[in-house]
Amino acid sequence: MPIRSTIVFPAGVISIQIGMPQTLAMLAAHPADPLLVALVAVPGDADEPIRPRSLCKVAVLARIADRLNLPGGSVQATVHGLQRIRLVDVEESDGFFTAQVRPVRERGAAAAENEDRIARILVALETLASQVERVSGEVPKILRMNVADASRFADLVATLANFGPSSKDEVLQRLDVRQRLAYVLDELEGQLRRAGRLERESPAVEAAEAAAPADRAADLRRRIKALQTELGEVDPIEREAVELLRRIDAAELPAPVAARARAEVERLRMIDPASTEAGEVRSYLDWLLHMPWRAGTARAPASIDLTRVQNALDAEHLGLEEPKERLLDYLAVAKLRGDLRGPIPCLVGPPGVGKTTLFEAFARGLGRPLARLELGGRGEAQLIGVRRTRPGAQPGKIVGTYRDIGAADPVFLLEEMDQIGLGKVEGDPIEVMETVLSWEDRAEFTDRYLDVPFDLTATLFVATAQDFYRIPRDLREQMVEIRIAGYTPEEKQAIARERMLPRLVEEHGLEPDDVHFSDDVLFYLARGYARDSGLGLLRRALSTLLRTRARAKAQGDTGTWEFTIERIHDIIGRPRYVATVAESAPEVGVVTGLAWTAAGGELMFIEALKMPGTGRLIITGLLGDVMKESVNAAYSYVRSRGDALDIDESAFKEYDVHVHFPVGAIPKDGPSAGIAVTLAVASTLSNRPVRHDIAMTGEVTLRGKVLEIGGVKEKVLAAYRAGIQEVILPRGNERDLRDVPEDVRERIEFHYVSRMEEVIELALLDEVRPDVAARRPEPAPTGEEPRAARA
Fold this sequence. Notes:
5-stranded parallel β-sheet; 6-stranded mixed β-sheet; alpha/beta; single chain; elongated; disordered C terminus
């Protein structure tokens, strides 16, 4: 289809009127729409005959549709350009032209030097639009929005800048994009030179010089741009704008975000590049361009490989079977449902038990990056940013974390969830986290600084906390509690052997043959130096030993160090825990209670002492209101049972009773020490000692009924780590022992009680009996600890 009046470039759409006889004949021979034709420019005047040989060149494959017959025999049709092609062997037959088609390949579309030419073209067009009416002032704006594809950009310039048919054909023929841009720039500069000569010859110049200062300044800026174009200089502002627009197109941003970014680029072009405002715009654009917006390409929950995740969890941690099972249950639901809606898993436990490392393995198994955000002390503005209208505005930590990891579908770990909102924080961070965790709000999460929605639906949120019930209720309802209570000494020994020690040896620059720890020594470390719930103390003790070995190796000692108990004493001193509670002699008024804390289970020593006085009850220690009420109730119960306990009524009038909780590190404001307090008061008033080989937990009513409590697993593990062999529990808590490891249940004798009288019968002695001492394990040795003591 030869044409003379115009050129249709690839991706261009125009409506043309066809009257050339050969083209009309071709349309008549092919009446069906749509019709694919080769659109080719015809050289020469309209009266000159068309020589087939002159059509052997680059043409445009085009689609013709919507034909409309007009009076006079012409046809109006819509033509849609598709791609460049090359015509060979053009012939005329049946009154129209046919040809063989060859594909063509463009070159240099991604060359770096294109950016300078594109910037110069935009400056030239802007200057030309201000000088001649045939080029609209909107043309430069349109072209700036389409700089990503240099090939199409050159074609658009030829179309929108109203190049003549021959010039457009020259643009079409150039398959090297660099040469095409150079030709377009030369053509524009030629038009600028002609427009400049006409302007200088026009009397309007004198009028411009006499114009108002503002108009004269605008005219001078226009002339400066024209001179820069003639000199071949690139406007740095235009170059920066072109580069930013190219990056915006290459980033494939969501439509609202791309529109906001392009508007900011236009704003940047209009302000002083050295101003503070320009710096703020650049910073904002940098954030938009570096955010991982492509949530649509994130890994779907249906692709979760549960076996791979389980293998990753098992490779990282020995034991912790129940937490692993609960995490796999959560993933199974997400896999079957195909999305991540619903409550998120929250690992709850004391420090050092492996909450974070378990989630690290969880993320590795999923093949997703792990993003971490500590919530303690964070205010609302720190989480969701500050609006750009305020001085010093910054994005929030949430979107900042996404930018750092560069992925829209991470495993996002919210640490210290029970610390959110505590301290002097501004705003309401709890409401922010409700928005983040609410499935209905995740797709439209908006940081105040970015001010455009960021989709969080591909993110797998998880959390950690030390105390689940300190998490605000509204957030707690969006979580599933998965508890990790802590480790026994035997578990710590196995973990040190299989996981911890090999890693620490490598971290300290040592070889496996440089050190040797026997199982007995590792158990001794766990029992004597690391009675915490987690692994932190054991890791620090091993690190201290290995640093000493590393120094010796660095000084030339290449032998294998056998770490004995004596060598450990020489390096880190005697054990912190020399004797267990069970190894002490029974005393009057001293009871071993069990408490739950955010750091795990702990032993809580309660002391009661009577002294001459007037019957007062004195309570000391860092106690909350709940615990103080328990002490008062305990005293009232003991006074009401004075006859049964052989306590003379005068003792309540002639003696003051002082109840003290000496371990200040343990929070004491929960209903779990009622029976221990009651026993301590009964012991001191009746002058009867309390067994120290038995620990207890439970609350008691004013009438002596023992009530069940929480945190049984943590409390039992604390008793086991301390060497306690007997534990008193409320009868209602018997079912909670299923959470306690089986080997621990086998080595502790449990007494289940319903009333306080049963506790007194079990733990309050008439005198110090010899069989109590005989039942105690051997003291912790200064040398190797006997195996019998472990039971």
